[in-house]
Specification:
The protein has 114 residues and is of the alpha+beta class. The chain has two helices and three strands. The chain has helices spanning 2-45, 48-59, and strands at residues 70-74, 82-90, 103-111. Strand 1 and strand 2 (82-90) form a beta hairpin.
């Protein structure tokens, strides 16, 4: 029983670390998908407000994303132009074990016109 008492904190730290890392990976993937979806909207409709709304909606299950964190660079009047969407969002963890100041990045690039 003493062995279990000694190993329990280590095992709990390991399990909580796996959960925290998994959530961070899920949030990162959600931001990448949101950036791709915003780039798609901007490339097709050429409307920055609609593209930001698409990014916020695409990230919604995992990340509460303010529209101000969605940066859009577009050169869509020309047919050879492209849209670049960059999202930088501070990570807020579940357990608080990861240090503050971690920023997750999502980037999406698409050619204008879809």
């Amino acid at each position: 029983m003493v062995e279990f008492a000694l190993l329990l904190p280590v095992l709990m730290a390991l399990v909580l670390g796996i959960i925290e890392f998994g959530f961070a990976l899920f949030a990162q993937a959600s931001l990448a998908g949101a950036a791709r979806e915003a780039a798609r909207e901007m490339a097709i409709h050429n409307d920055a407000a609609q593209a930001r709304t698409a990014a916020v909606n695409a990230a919604a299950p995992a990340v509460t994303l303010p529209a101000g964190e969605v940066g859009i660079t577009a050169d869509c009047p020309s047919a050879a132009g492209q849209v670049v969407v960059a999202i930088d969002h501070p990570y807020v963890g579940l357990t608080g074990w990861l240090p503050a100041g971690i920023v997750l990045h999502g980037r999406g690039v698409m050619r204008c016109g879809g």
